[in-house]
Amino acid sequence: MILENTGLDGIKSELAHLDDVTDKLGFVRWQWEYNRATYDYKITEDGNDYYLRINTRAVEGKLEDPEAVLAIEVAYIGRATFPHGLDYDSPISESVLKQARRKLDELKNSLA
What we know:
Blueprint: E1 2-3, E2 12-14, H1 15-24, E3 28-32, E4 36-45, E5 48-60, E6 69-81, E7 85-87, H2 94-111
Antiparallel strand pairs: 1-6, 2-6, 3-4, 4-5, 5-6, 6-7
């Protein structure tokens, strides 16, 4: 599920700063390659794990450079399924969505 109107789309940050801020908020940079990085935040409810995921793209430099500038693109959430990854079409409870939106607001305020 794509989370709309987060206020994060297009925000830019240096990689080192974004890593520091997201780490303090409990996100983990799981996936990254030459010009993209993904930050995940785990939410557990009723025995199910959900991952709030934020995509970023390098707009200046490459990801191995801490001074590379990344732009936040889209935020979305999915339910973890074993062994296949994330199911983005599963229904997500309002309480999980509320936690996700609160975490996205914290991130937005920390980057402002």
